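Chapter summary example.
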Amino acid sequence: MSRLELSEYLGQKKVSGQLNKIIQKLISDKLVERTIPDVPNHPAQKFVLTRKGIAFLAIIKNECQ
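The structure predicted for these 65 residues follows.
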């Protein structure tokens, strides 16, 4: 997803500074990664879950049930 797609998915009208901070934290925790890693601010930049991110989501879903 792009930053805007993430923002809209979370119910926001635009990309906020808080969302950018969260994305940076997810990247540093290796839960998501950029599709264009060499150009962080590329207009076509998107983010994908890593294997660690997928495992983390599975744990959260299991704990919420």
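To summarize the output: The chain has three helices and two strands.
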